[in-house]
Amino acid sequence: MSVAFRRESDEEHKEPRFELPIPPGPNLVTVRGLKLIDARVAELEAAVAAEPDDAAREALRRDLRYWHTRQTTAELAPVPGGDAVAIGSRVRFRLNGRERRIDIVGADEADPAAGRIAFQAPLAATLIGAEPGERVDFNGKPEAIEVIATQAIPETE
Fold it and tell me: For the whole prediction, is pTM greater than 0.85?
């Protein structure tokens, strides 16, 4: 029989499992973000130890490798001081006549539905460095955003 018609095993026909992509750039985190990463690592380590199924355990290990990398590369962002917007700031601003509030956090802590956006997001990148009363350009529009107030995100949240 020709080698072309032989199949060694079913393993060679499975979809490859790629590692989870690591966001580019520095891994800046808030105090809350670092605690969330530590909790996720502990949760995954327990799940790997308890999982009886090999395939499910391998998927958990892949997630654990991602979170271990994020844990070891995490750089705690300095707590914002003064009025300038920075990572770890809660910002109130007006955009298109509507007042909004967001928290600027690290990539793994971001949850746009809860008002937490990553510092790499275009809106956060535009706001970083701005101070209350300042108007900044956004999305090609001059002075589109008015910064109303800033404060450090409370550590209890």
Answer: no
